[in-house]
């Protein structure tokens, strides 16, 4: 087991592992227990009472966080028909077949997110496995496959984040940066909590959200009181 730094030991000591904190308390504590020299991202994890083996219990989507993300993402726009729109929306890279071939032949991944128009998806499918292993394959459910590519790019720039269940029934996302004021973090938390609640599958009976926790990069997990 790696040795804990003095900073991390001190941060861990501030968190009561047996306590469920209100979200206001949790946000303040997350900031206090941030141990990095850089501006840490505040992550959120939902443990849900779902069985992702069933298609109707797989939760996936995207949301534009009202308080932003504090992150700048390099956007690759793949299109044949909306090149001007994507360029005007200031995607970092815009192209079609030639950029798909660049990824395939050169293992080029100088981007963080891919948006695409529907007509290019057949070609993009040829490298679907390559993109999929890196979580970069665009999907209509997250708004990254669309004819309105300019709007998709603008949403990403405003603070769009994706969420999906993993094989354990957990959903991971972010609510901002440790430098954000409490109100923006709270707005982001409420926004993502709301979409998770609305995504509750009809097949789920009883408690839906079992646990919620937040943490900064490398910081301790803080359990949040769940209001189902």
TrEMBL record:
From which residue to which does any coiled coil extend?
none
CDD domains from the entry?
A: Ribosomal_L1
Q: Which UniProt keywords apply?
A: Repressor, Ribonucleoprotein, Ribosomal protein, RNA-binding, rRNA-binding, Translation regulation, tRNA-binding
One of its GO biological process terms is: translation
The terms under GO molecular function for this entry are: rRNA binding; structural constituent of ribosome; tRNA binding
Specify whether Secreted is a keyword of the entry. Answer: no
Q: What GO terms fall under cellular component here? A: large ribosomal subunit
Query: Per UniProt, what is one Pfam family of this protein?
Result: Ribosomal_L1
Q: Which PANTHER family match?
A: 54S RIBOSOMAL PROTEIN L1, MITOCHONDRIAL, LARGE RIBOSOMAL SUBUNIT PROTEIN UL1M
Q: Which NCBIfam families match?
A: rplA_bact
What is the protein's known function?
Answer: Protein L1 is also a translational repressor protein, it controls the translation of the L11 operon by binding to its mRNA. Binds directly to 23S rRNA. The L1 stalk is quite mobile in the ribosome, and is involved in E site tRNA release.
Oligomeric state and partners? Answer: Part of the 50S ribosomal subunit.
The Swiss-Prot or TrEMBL record describes its family as follows: Belongs to the universal ribosomal protein uL1 family.
Q: What is this protein called?
A: Large ribosomal subunit protein uL1
User: Which species is this UniProt entry from?
Assistant: Spiroplasma corruscae
Could you read off the lineage of the organism from its UniProt record?
Answer: Bacteria, Bacillati, Mycoplasmatota, Mollicutes, Entomoplasmatales
